[in-house]
Amino acid sequence: MSDETGRATIELRLASSAQLFNTLDPFPFREGDIDADAERYIVEWAQDLPKDAALAIIVHLPGADDPARPRPDLSVALTGWFAAKARAESHALRALFRDGRLAFLIGFAGLAVCLFLSFLLTQRSEGPFARVVQESLVIIGWVVIWRPAEMFLYDWLPLLRRKRLYQRLAQATVTVRMETCG
Fold it and tell me: If both were cysteines, with which of 31, 107, 153, 179 could 145 make a disulfide (CB 3.0 to 4.6 Å apart)?
């Protein structure tokens, strides 16, 4: 679905604006946590929308809210929440690459030791038992390097995908529409 400006839209129909926030969070709306179910709903809808389309979030609220209660700034709350999630994914990505570099050094050293021991064994021993030990050392060496390789080849992709999605949600246009009951 898209709005009049061509943005891909996510629509929320709420009984009150408080539904959007974590009720256990003691902070006011601007700094408050978005409810996990509300976040999951928004994220799942955003994942289904075209990746290159700008996003719009439309929040439908009943118009009979208590006028004495301050109305939260849902735009600031939602975009701020998703901007913080994008920053968290950026930190996780940096941590993954930092840990990956350390794991690669450890894995490379382990691979080198295993290959060196295998080489020494082939120089000093022959026979089926020596061959089994030699091949086992080679396999262990490659297993030791597998996790660092996996970190650099595959593990960063979901983090980057979530970071980009959260950035798109942080840049979304949030519109609150007050609806009359009746």
Answer: 107
